[in-house]
Every structure is written in structure tokens, then in C-alpha cells.
Design a protein that fits this description.
- About 80% of the residues lie in helices and about 0% in strands.
- By secondary structure, the protein is mainly alpha-helical.
- It has one domain (about 1-190, about 210-405): Up-down Bundle (Growth Hormone, Chain: A), CATH 1.20.1250.
- The radius of gyration is 21 Å and the shape is globular.
- This is MFS transporter.
- It is found in: Membrane.
- Pfam families: MFS_1.
Length: about 425
């Protein structure tokens, strides 16, 4: 069992790498525009992806909690492989809608289940004094770093393949999409507490407990989930603006992949060293940094031109790596293991469900008003939103510290 679970950690890291190795993403907007799609239609494909995940996210997370995280990852990886393979014949708006629908189901099954399985594996090994990986906390940040590094590798691969043709990018994606499925077969289910993963209390009772945990349990859980949703939504927006922005700045298409790789490496490194930065600066200073960086990045992109505007995008990526690592670790540490996948899925649902409505509006704004007004609009909307979520989060953390330690008047390290 020990050897299987230790292999679990390595397999999840590799699975995360190949799940994040999506060579079509750095050039996805030009790819779809090459088939005659407008930015509005591009965002509609992403809205369908978000809608599919919104409908499947929580049920899939609950299924993973009940029937096993490995099973959910296995089925999700299989659907993703099918979706990527469908790119070989996709050449119309409807074809890309079908592609996004299949991926939406696949990623919803994996989302939350991989984090939960990794966390459960590390906790099980540590509780029994067995040698595991980096520990539950560092493993989550490392998984995020691995996925970001995979995105960077995909960006470099995309730029190199563009020396031949866009078809070669699609071809590689179609076949590397099967790698996560092969790795999912190697996973084993981590033992969980007795009663976890069954419906003995009834689905209704389980749902009540989850809602009670999020809304009426530990306040830090609610505000951390809220923070993940706010910062995650901004990340999704700029994710799809980047390529259009680079195009408007006159950046050559062949450079898109290299920029994407540099952006992904920035996320990877900031996620990897997020805990060390929190220990160095303290949680309040890190939260301020997480909020200031993306606003500075949006404003810099809006007013700067050419490569200087591209450079300002790195500020958003640093914030992304820090927020993903610290917020998700803080959430998973405070959530019971039997509902960890469900809660992770609920948080993702908050982002996806909002994007369903706002994604096409973002595309319309880009088509009708241009990139600069859209970036300024995002800065104006998200600056107060970040304050709305981070100020209460800091207050709740301070209260939690005061309740758990009589000497917690000063900020301690790694409280997030």
C-alpha cells in the first residue's frame, strides 16, 4: 500500500503535467479565427465549456467523493482524450462547440478530484509516519506549478510546430491527449476515514453538511472560496484576452507560444515559492500583493504599447500563481476529507457559472470597443471586488488566530 500511494503522488504530478500540456491553447484564438470565427463566437465556445462544467462540476465532485477520485479521473481523462481527438476533423463553429462540450464534461470530472486525491494521499502517508511526497501543503502548490510548467512547455512546442503549420499543432494535441488516460490507470484510491465516500446519511444530509460548512462553518472557508472565485474569474478573462491583445500589439504569431511559455513559467515559479513568500512577508502583505499586481498589470497593458504592454502581463501571472497556491491550500486544509472534491468543484462552479453569462459579453466588448477599453473596464470592476473579498478574509483570519492561539496577536507564518 505504501509503495502504491507513493507512486500515486508521482502519477498525479505526471497526470497534471499532461493535462496542462495543451499545445492548442496558446494559439487557440488564431486557430478559430482561421476558420472564420469572430471573437464573440470564440467566447461563445468558451461559454459553452463553462456551462457544461457548471452543470457537471458539483455532481462530478460529489461522484468523486462517493465513488472514488480515481474513477472520476479515469472517466474524465477518457472524455478529454476523445475531445482532443475530435480536433482532427473540427473546422466549423458547431464542431468547436462539440469539442468544448466533451472537454467540459471531462475536465469537470477531473477538477477537484485530482487535488482531493493528492491531498488525501499525502495526509494518509503522514498520519501513519510513512514517507510521502512534499507534504499536503507543498504538494498542492507543486501540482499547480507542474500544471503551469506544462502550459509553458506547450507554448514552446506550439511555436516550434508553427514553423511547419497550424495542422501540426492540432495533430500533436490529438495524440498527447491520451497520455492522462494512461496515467489515470496507474492511480489507486487513497484510504479515507470510515463512512467517507458512502451515502449512509443520505444525499440530502450530505448536501446540508456541505452548505453548512461553506456558509455557516468556519468563516475563513467561505471567504477563501469567495477569493478563489473572484481571482479565478479575472484569470479566465485575461486568459482569453491575451492572444487578441498580442495580435493588436503587432506581436508575430510565431512568438505567441514563447510568450505563453514565459507566462506559464511565471505562474509555476510564483506558485512553487508562494509559501516561502508568505513566511517572509506575512499573510496580510502577500494578500495586498496578490490584489495590487493584477490591477497594475491591467492598467499597464491598457496604456503601454508593443512588448512593454506584454511585459505588464507578467504581473497578472505572478498574482495568479500566488493566489491559486495559497488560497487552495488554505481551503483544502480546512475542509473535511469526505467532501474535499465536492467543495473544490463548488468553488470552480462559482467561476464557470459567472463566465457563462459574462464570457460572450467580454467577446462583444472586444469586437465592438477594442482591447484597451475592455482592460480598463476589468480594472474598474475588479479593484473594488478584490477589496470586498480580501478585507473580510484578513479579519476572519485574525479572528481564527485569536480563537486557536492565545499568542496569535501577531501574524504567524503560513496561516493561509
Amino acid at each position: 500500500m505504501k509503495r502504491s500511494l507513493e507512486n500515486n503522488i508521482k502519477a498525479i504530478y505526471l497526470l497534471g503535467f499532461f493535462t496542462g500540456f495543451m499545445v492548442v491553447v496558446p494559439v487557440f484564438v488564431p486557430l478559430l479565427q482561421g476558420y472564420g470565427l469572430s471573437m464573440s463566437e470564440v467566447m461563445q465556445t468558451q461559454a459553452l465549456f463553462a456551462l457544461t462544467i457548471a452543470l457537471c462540476e458539483v455532481p462530478s465532485g460529489y461522484i468523486a467523493d462517493l465513488w472514488g477520485r480515481r474513477n472520476a479521473i479515469l472517466v474524465g481523462s477518457g472524455l478529454n482524450a476523445l475531445g482532443f481527438f475530435s480536433l482532427l476533423w473540427a473546422d466549423s463553429f458547431v464542431d468547436f462547440l462539440i469539442y468544448e462540450f466533451i472537454l467540459g464534461i471531462g475536465f469537470s470530472l477531473i477538477s477537484g478530484a485530482d487535488l482531493a486525491l493528492l491531498y488525501d494521499t499525502e495526509v494518509y502517508l503522514q498520519e501513519r509516519g510513512l514517507r510521502g511526497g512534499a507534504g499536503a501543503s507543498k504538494s498542492l502548490s507543486r501540482l499547480i506549478a507542474v500544471e503551469a510548467a506544462a502550459s509553458g512547455a506547450a507554448g514552446i512546442a506550439a511555436s516550434l510546430l508553427l514553423l511547419w503549420s497550424m495542422d501540426s499543432v492540432v495533430m500533436l494535441q490529438a495524440f498527447t491527449g491520451f497520455a492522462p488516460l494512461l496515467l489515470a490507470v496507474l492511480l489507486v484510491e487513497a484510504p479515507r476515514p470510515p463512512g467517507a465516500g458512502d451515502a449512509a446519511d443520505g444525499h440530502g444530509e450530505n448536501a446540508r453538511r456541505i452548505v453548512d460548512l461553506l456558509l455557516f462553518g468556519k468563516p475563513v472557508v467561505f471567504w477563501t472560496a469567495f477569493a478563489i472565485a473572484v481571482f479565478g474569474l479575472l484569470a479566465v478573462y485575461v486568459f482569453w484576452i491575451y492572444q487578441k491583445y498580442w495580435e493588436m500589439q503587432g506581436i508575430p504569431l510565431a512568438s505567441f507560444g514563447y510568450i505563453w511559455a514565459a507566462f506559464a513559467l511565471t505562474v509555476s515559479l510564483s506558485a512553487r515559492y508562494s509559501e516561502s513568500l508568505e513566511r517572509l512577508l506575512g499573510y496580510r502583505q502577500v494578500l495586498v500583493l496578490i490584489a495590487v499586481l493584477p490591477i497594475a498589470g491591467l492598467l499597464g497593458m491598457a496604456f503601454a504599447a508593443g512588448w512593454l504592454g506584454v511585459i505588464f502581463g507578467f504581473a497578472i501571472q505572478v498574482s495568479r500563481g500566488l493566489s491559486m497556491s495559497l488560497f487552495y491550500e488554505a481551503l483544502n486544509r480546512r475542509v473535511p476529507g469526505e467532501f474535499r472534491a465536492t467543495v473544490n468543484s463548488l468553488v470552480s462552479l462559482g467561476v464557470r457559472s459567472t463566465f457563462i453569462v459574462t464570457g460572450p459579453l467580454l467577446g462583444m466588448a472586444l469586437d465592438s470597443h477594442g482591447v484597451q477599453p475592455t482592460l480598463l473596464g476589468l480594472a474598474a470592476i475588479f479593484a473594488p471586488l478584490m477589496g470586498l473579498v480580501l478585507v473580510p478574509l484578513v479579519l476572519k483570519i485574525r479572528r481564527e488566530q485569536a480563537e486557536t492561539s492565545p499568542q496569535a496577536s501577531a501574524p504567524s507564518a503560513a496561516v493561509l
